[in-house]
Amino acid sequence: MISMLLIFCTMVINRQLNYLFETDLGFKFENRGYIYGSEKDREIAHILSGIPGVEEVLTGYSLLLPYKGGHIWLFSVNEGSEKEKNMKVEALTFSVEYMQYYGLRLLEDSFPEKADEVLINEAFVKNAGWNNAIGSTVMGERYRVVGVLKDVYNESPLTPPRPVVYCFPGVLDTYNNFALFRYGTGEWKAVRARLESIFHETYDPKDIEISGSEEAYREYIRSEQMLLGVLSVVSLACVVISLFSVYSLISLACERRRKEIAVRKINGARVKDILRMFTREYLAVLVISAAIAFPLGYLWMNDWLEQYVKRTPVGVEIYLGIFLLLAILMALCTGWKVWRAAVANPAEVVKSE
Description:
The chain is of the alpha+beta class. The protein has helices spanning 2-22, 41-49, 96-102, 122-128, 188-202, 213-220, 222-256, 258-266, 271-305, 316-343, 346-352; strands at residues 32-36, 54-59, 71-77, 85-93, 106-109, 117-121, 137-138, 143-149, 164-167, 178-183, 209-212. The protein contains eleven helices and eleven strands. The chain is elongated and about 100 Å long.
């Protein structure tokens, strides 16, 4: 029962981790890095452009991953109506190049063409309670919404998307000192080593921060990876101990029931009948264990999954897979011992007894 419970928890955690890496987060962060260099981002961008393996460089834009926080505006929505309310909204600078760099997707209508036109994300629409966001105005009719972007999950997997408004450069009274760059697949180690060699010779290491978005995302789920590692080791140990225990019990049972087996064979029982007798007994133990472990595991892991914004489904295949796995392992561990007891010569057994 304990083995089943631990294996179930381990498989759900592993499945959730894989899901977090494979699910659509609303943007692309693979093969993307950044350099923070105070007010030297344009100089850094020039150097970046000449680094082998670097395919694209952008400056003056917000960094999506890791999340560094943006310019917060207090937006008034539904002004003049009973549903009027103020809403804290993160404002980010964007452009066509920026959207292509991160793979941001426009869900509704068109791309802005004027400085007073903005894009908003799905979370903005949901928080504002709008049925149709296109054409709506915000900030005292100062800006008009012309499109809706898919939500970006760029914080911890436990944090839901924030309402965001995307403005043209120059609208926000802020400047983002990040040099964003995209590198070729498998080039990160070489690119980073080259960058560190160049920048640490030119600038004070305290003024330059070099990192990758994939590293930042792994940092978000480090605790889950550590928990998975611990549970995997404990689960393996429990399974091994359980199998040794079952093997010992089977060996003892076969030794104690040698005479019973011999009498059954003398009375016409076949080898498969003896095997079925033992299989039925230990299959019942397995079924009882599953009946206790699986509901407990579901309650625990469902409560654990509830904290995530994006959750993997827990299908019936996990339960069947664990049950069949342990049934096969039990059969392999005990089958040989039972087989020997079943094919033994009953005459010799009765004589020795």
